[in-house]
Amino acid sequence: MGRKLTGHQKNSLAVLLGIFGSILVSFIIAVALIFVFSRQPLNTLWYYFVGPFLDSYSLFNMLESSIPLIFSGLGIAIAFKSGVTNLGGEGQIFSGAIVAVILGSSVPGLPGLAGIVMILAAGAAAGAALAGISGVLRMKFKISDLLTSYLISSGIVYIINYLILGPFRDPAKITIQSVSIPSSYTLARFLPPSYIHTGIFIALLTAGVMFVVLRKTHFGYELRATGSNPQFARYAGIDTDRFTVLPMLLSGGLIGLGGAIQIAGRTRSCFTDLTAGLGWNGIAVALIARNNPLGVIPAALFYAYLNAGARAAMINSDVTVELANVISSVIFYLVTAEAAFAFIRRRLGE
Amino acid sequence: MSSFHLPVIGGTIDIMTPFLLAAVGGLYSSLAGVLNIALEGLMIFSAFFSVVVTVATGNLFLGIAGGVLATLLLTTLFGSIALGLRANIFICGLATNLLAAALSIVLSFSFYGQTGSVNFPDMPVLKPVRMPFLQGIPVLGDVVANHNILVYVSWLLLAASSILIYRTPFGMRLRAVGHNAKAAFALGVNPRRYQFVALLISGFACALGGAVLTLTLGAFVPNVSSGRGWIALVIIYLGRRTPIGILIGSVTFGLVEFISNYLQVASDIPSGLLLAMPFFVTVIALIVYSLIESNIRKGRSLHARKMVVSRPG
């Protein structure tokens, strides 16, 4: 090799190797789990790992399912980077979705683009408001944001389910679902018959913007400083109270936006199990991405693959889709254990 | 006491039991300085396995033992990664919650072919057991003396804990580890070992809490704990990490859930709103607690200032 790696490059390389190592080990464990739980393991393995790539329809649908994951992953990454804890992803996605539905269906007359902007902004605002409450409670009353974000989200999920079953249910539909937004407010599907829609470009753009905001702006610097060492940040003159509430707003806003985009791009109406663990998977995505906004994109794709594989295996073989969550929890353990290992290695190396 | 109050007390006692068990368990890890957000998952794991073993053996005692054993295994996995490898305990806790919820559904599918609720009409369920010596308590005798066995176990566990934590060398070392792990280490106490034991105790208590949920029901329902493990964390905090505080907190949240259940039957308030109630009550309780705390603190510092001012010289 003609050129030596700098310390920083070495470090990033180690992080990358660690992440790929964890993912590789989790694949091995996935194979083992399939052999345990499936009576026709080879069939299951085939559909789990190859299923999402078998035809362009499956492939594009997998890409589509990464869109909400990118948003929830970004939201969680921002929270972790700033030292706040947001465990309310489920409620925030869901509230972003229901607010988009309610507003979109009750104000149907706007030109398409204005309508889309309106419902996306409203969804983001709803998510931001929910998470913001936890931020304010922590700033004003020193109440753990870990607890309140979870509690508020859990309560809200019940209320939104009630709205879907009751006041905003669409009586004309056989399945239980809410009223729909007008078709002029939907994001274009550019590769039919797959569900992939222009929301993916909004997702990629948002990830890019978040990367720039975190790395290149004064705001991002203060946010990261508060996150990595709040005491030092306070001495340095940063208003750390502000950086308890702002990251929460931003985090919830991104996640709520993901919910609204799910409505505008995919479902047009709200279902009772719309979130289906998206909030929790966002944490896993942020973890794999090491809270890097650009890293969230491949991490979300990986997660979408994991879930698409489980869906394909469920349809064509004899396992249930929750198998993906078992594998996901294994990844949680591995990624965090790997970080601990890396820390110990560094300590030994010194 | 009017006849209306008695069923309220009896019902609250039944409903508060999972809260009480999870909170007593979480108390140990909390006192040892371990953030255990996996109470929820540990309960769900046992809720599932106690049903599986009860259905397989037809024996409730073995069922409870099976739930406890499975949950202790999961706790060991959690503890080994979080404490043994010194990984991020918050993430490990999330992983444990996710694993418990997902694995119970995957196994339920492979055992019973279903991913939703599974009913077992022939399975033995926990029934109220009369305790003659409690019957003698004036007025309350009837409502106190007629509960399932795990309710009494939860009281025993609470009483035993207040002795174990405050009156034994083990309890004192445990609290020392939580208070200042380095100092405890300097005095020859191995903090990790005490934290691991604390986690195992919390796994044990959560297992009983999970078992009471499904073994009284005769069915396994995915996500049966529905947030109780998280509310237990709040109960520990609001109860100032004391056994008596935990008892008060569990009674309060038991009563809230009782009212929510009662209104679902007796009023036309939509059940979705009533199911949300315990969560919002919990948040409000946290706010009220914090307001009272800060008032006391202000009062104290005001008092202290007066003392300084009134000192002659």
> Percentage of helical residues of chain B?
over 70%
Instruction: Give me the number of helical elements of chain B.
Output: 13
Shape of chain B: globular
Record the strand order, biggest sheet of chain B. Answer: 1-4
Number of helices of chain A: 13
| Head-to-tail CA distance between termini of chain A | 25 Å
Count interface residues per chain for the largest interface. Answer: A-B, 46 and 46 residues
Oligomer status:
heterodimer
How many separate domains make up the residues of chain B?
Answer: 2
Average predicted confidence as pLDDT of chain B: 90
Contiguous uncertain segments of 5+ residues of chain A: none
Give the ordered list of helices and strands of chain A: HHHHHHHHHHHHH
Instruction: Round the Cα radius of gyration of chain A to an integer and report it.
Output: 21 Å
C-alpha geometry of chain A:
globular
Structure notes:
Chain A has helices spanning 7-37, 41-50, 56-81, 89-106, 112-141, 145-165, 199-216, 218-228, 230-235, 242-267, 278-288, 296-316, 323-349. With 350 residues, chain A is mainly alpha-helical. With 313 residues, chain B is mainly alpha-helical. The longest helix of chain B has 40 residues, at 271-310. Chain B is globular, with a radius of gyration of 21 Å. Chains A and B meet through α6, α11 and α13 of A and α4, α11 and α13 of B.
Features:
heterodimer, A: ABC transporter involved in vitamin B12 uptake, BtuC, B: mainly alpha, 2 domains, two-stranded antiparallel sheet
Question: What is the structure about, briefly put?
Answer:
Chain A is mainly alpha-helical and 350 residues long.
Secondary-structure map with pairings?
The complex is a heterodimer of chains A (350) and B (313).
Chain A: H1 7-37, H2 41-50, H3 56-81, H4 89-106, H5 112-141, H6 145-165, H7 199-216, H8 218-228, H9 230-235, H10 242-267, H11 278-288, H12 296-316, H13 323-349
Helix pairs in contact in A: 1-2, 1-13, 2-12, 3-7, 3-10, 3-11, 3-12, 4-5, 4-6, 4-10, 4-11, 5-6, 5-10, 7-8, 11-12, 11-13, 12-13
Chain B: H1 5-31, H2 39-57, H3 60-84, H4 89-112, E1 118-119, E2 129-130, H5 132-135, H6 141-144, E3 146-147, H7 149-167, H8 169-179, H9 181-186, H10 191-215, E4 219-220, H11 228-238, H12 243-266, H13 271-310
Antiparallel strand pairs in B: 1-4, 2-3
Helix pairs in contact in B: 1-7, 1-10, 1-11, 1-12, 2-3, 2-4, 2-10, 2-11, 3-4, 3-10, 7-8, 7-10, 8-10, 11-12, 12-13
